[in-house]
Amino acid sequence: MNLEKLCNEVKELARSTGEYLKTEQTVLRKRDIELKSTRNYVTYIDKEAERRLVEGLSRLLPEAGFLTEEETVGFEQKEYTWIIDPLDGTTNYVHGDSPFSVSIALMKENEIILGVVYDPLAAQMYSATGAGRVFLNNNPVRVSSHSTLTNGYIGFGIPYSLDERGEQILRNAMKQFRKCSFRIKGSAALEICYIAAGVCDAYFHSGLSPWDVAAGAFILQCAGGKCSDFSGGDNYIFNKELVASNGIIHQEIMETIIQGN
Ligand code: 2AM
Ligand code: CA
Ligand code: CA
Ligand code: CA
């Protein structure tokens, strides 16, 4: 497999799907907006974008299976699996707001080998095919060198259903409000990429699914960053617990915000 060539083809597909999202946002009508549960929006556009991605990616790699948010195609265990979120940031999207993104990861057995996240409004394409091979558009990027929570620029999200643990973590974060600047941007995939590009220093969110995390986390790690679950372990894609950082402030985030010491 020529990974660089495949990555370029995936980027083209992400770009055209992103253009579709951008155009449709301007004509989206109230009656097209559905709720899966409170705060959890979906539209026909999420599903149509996913259908286009599945069709395009199937052409690029016919032997691969899929793990997708809208389940337009069922999951099947294969050597290669595309993990895709056709529209990450649907809440922003339905409110006519930004950012939102297309997120595509390729997993070989249990390892991610390619990640692409595209923001069509900013025309920003994040991609990675391995350590040091990570780009924002055509420019190589790296994580920030910010070393403490103090004056940090930290992203997070609030899960649709908030359990006791999730609430405690938000309370722990609140205690740090005077120290650092917190942001909720609303597209998990992009918020992880912002760390890869050195814009943000860290991000945490519980309740995320593999399609929110897989591409961004791979891109971040290729850019020198770190991801972990809430115990500090490696189960951050499938376990609904994510802490992502530039690596340097990871331990401090774990201690102050996740463990609440
Ligand atoms: P979505 O727009 O594809 O649904 C918002 O906090 C960000 O987190 C979005 O990227 C949203 O993805 C994602 N998200 C996924 N699962 C979530 C959950 N259980 N609660 C809140 N946000 C979730
Ligand atoms: Ca969704
Ligand atoms: Ca998502
Ligand atoms: Ca989505």
From TrEMBL:
UniProt keyword annotation of Magnesium present = yes
Q: Alphabetically, which GO biological process terms does the record hold?
A: inositol metabolic process; phosphatidylinositol phosphate biosynthetic process; signal transduction
Keywords, in A-Z order: Hydrolase, Magnesium, Metal-binding
Record field: catalytic activity: a myo-inositol phosphate + H2O = myo-inositol + phosphate
Q: Broadest EC class?
A: hydrolase
Q: Which Pfam families match?
A: Inositol_P
The protein's matches in Gene3D superfamilies, at most eight in alphabetical order, are given as: 3.40.190.80, Fructose-1,6-Bisphosphatase, subunit A, domain 1
Instruction: Write the Enzyme Commission number(s) for this entry.
Output: 3.1.3.25
Q: Which CDD domains match?
A: IMPase
Coiled coil regions in record? none
- Cite a single GO MF annotation: inositol monophosphate 1-phosphatase activity
The entry marks the following residues as binding Mg(2+), namely: 69, 85, 87-88, 212
Q: Matching InterPro entries, A to Z?
A: IMPase, Inositol_monoP_metal-BS, Inositol_monophosphatase-like, Inositol_monophosphatase_CS
> Which cofactor names does the annotation list?
Mg(2+)
The entry assigns this protein to a family as follows: Belongs to the inositol monophosphatase superfamily.
PANTHER family listed in its UniProt record: INOSITOL MONOPHOSPHATASE, INOSITOL-1-MONOPHOSPHATASE-RELATED
Protein name per Swiss-Prot or TrEMBL: Inositol-1-monophosphatase
